[in-house]
Specification:
The chain has 102 residues and is of the alpha+beta class. The protein has three helices and six strands. The two termini are 35 Å apart.
């Protein structure tokens, strides 16, 4: 529900977590607050591989393998969405006329 989604964002915004990486060890401060807010930690290893981790005080990054993320497909006719659509112009005109007549 939309209310649950809003509560999650409010909880996420209220968390103040700190991160420190030394020698492939990620240390998370206030990890319990992240768990309470149901927030995960995303660590980008490369532009194509990333980790999505549950919050813990200490995370060993060497022992984890990244999950490949597929690149978004950009259609060849992307410019088409910026072109004006005469049907929309007619629909907007029709709506404006109906509003004036009310």
């Amino acid at each position: 529900r939309l209310g649950d989604w809003a509560q999650w964002w409010l909880g996420r915004a209220a968390t103040e977590a700190g991160f420190e990486v030394r020698e492939s060890v990620l240390r998370v401060s206030h990890a319990a607050a992240l768990t309470h807010a149901r927030v995960g930690i995303r660590v980008a290893l490369t532009s194509e591989h990333a980790l999505l981790l549950s919050p813990q005080e200490t995370i060993l990054l060497d022992s984890r393998e990244g999950t490949p993320h597929p690149r978004a497909h950009i259609p060849d006719d992307l410019h088409r969405i910026r072109e004006t659509d005469p049907r929309r112009l007619l629909g907007d005109l029709y709506t404006a006329i109906l509003r004036r007549l009310k």
